[in-house]
Specification:
seven-stranded mixed β-sheet; Rossmann fold; alpha/beta
């Protein structure tokens, strides 16, 4: 987190991650304002609790003056947004959400998890395991995780874990968000054509992940799912001896007669609360990445049984036992 206290305005403050960043910065002592034309729950309640909820819905360019250090532009805001036009007129420092996160983490090791599917769960597992062992780190994730009060944390920690979305950064910046973070360690969980409104062909969509892999710096690491056809092609491209390209696959596992899944390590079995083939790949991904940032496989297996999943991601909603006659 930047030591100097900043004054920051959020255009489209009600966004799912935008409002969490606004609250985090406010709690850190920065001056935060924002606007939006509609704010839904839980954003509305969270902003209200910290005194950040705008008095009225809508756009109010008169809020802006030359005293602002940053204007953070949300994806929801269009190019003709009145507040954006005013910020441009004042020549304020306008940045997208990912650009702001990068600005605040230039001196950290940046770990970015990308993929059409699985990236939220992988990021959540990594956060859970690091918290389990009381490691110091920052994070950005797109969903609520049990035990976390926010989806964003910025501090003076030496490393940041970021869920990297391939969607565009802002109305002014058509660059995929995950490129703006400038990762040192990148992970691609899988690639399946999405966001057809932005990437009209599968080829163009896949190209964004190839760019992500190509942005891995010298001395960096690219971790990829060898069980996903496209991710494997991208990961095996061969980008030189000065960076590591590391495959992963589903974690070894077994189950009992009740359907309970266990991760296996030799003869040891470790029960988990997740289920499904994709989640076994997600577990393999998180374990491989955590090995590269100081968590041993033994530590991982100690922590993973207590992971309950990320909100809205393949959650168990009911169970039932067949009665014997």
């Amino acid at each position: 987190m930047h030591a100097k206290k900043q004054k920051i305005h959020f255009i489209a403050i009600g966004g799912s991650v935008m409002h969490n960043l606004a609250v985090e910065l406010h709690k850190a002592g920065h001056t935060v304002t924002g606007s939006d034309d509609e704010i839904h729950e839980p954003s509305r309640s969270m902003l209200s609790a910290d005194g950040l909820l705008p008095k009225s819905d809508g756009w109010f360019p008169e809020k802006l003056d030359n005293s602002y250090d940053f204007v953070v532009l949300g994806m929801h805001a269009s190019k003709d947004n009145p507040e954006l036009l005013k910020a441009q007129e004042l020549k304020l420092n306008i940045v997208s959400f990912p650009e702001y996160i990068y600005q605040q983490s230039k001196d950290k090791e940046r770990v970015v998890i990308a993929g059409s599917h699985g990236k939220t769960t992988i990021t959540a597992i990594i956060i859970h395991v690091l918290n389990f062992f009381n490691r110091r780190f920052d994070y950005v994730i797109g969903a609520r995780v049990p035990g976390l009060s926010s989806t964003v944390k910025l501090s003076d920690a030496p490393i940041i874990i970021i869920e990297g979305d391939e969607y565009l950064s802002s109305a002014l910046d058509p660059t995929p968000k995950f490129l703006r973070y400038q990762h040192h360690v990148g992970l691609i969980s899988g690639v399946a054509w999405d966001h057809a409104n932005v990437f009209p062909s599968e080829e163009e969509y896949v190209r964004q992940f190839d760019h992500f892999a190509d942005h891995t710096p010298k001395g960096g690491m690219l971790i990829y799912n060898e069980q996903d056809e496209i991710a494997s092609i991208i990961g095996k491209k061969g980008r030189g001896d000065d960076l590591l390209e590391i495959p992963y696959k589903s974690h070894p596992h077994t189950s009992d007669n009740s359907g309970q899944l266990f991760l296996t390590n030799g003869k040891e079995r470790h029960p988990i609360k997740l289920f499904g083939g994709h989640n076994l790949q997600n577990i393999g991904a998180a374990k491989e990445l955590l090995k590269k940032i100081g968590i041993t496989p033994e530590q991982f297996l100690q922590a993973i049984p207590t992971f309950e999943g990320a909100a809205g991601r393949l959650e168990k909603v009911a169970s039932h036992t067949r009665l014997r006659k």
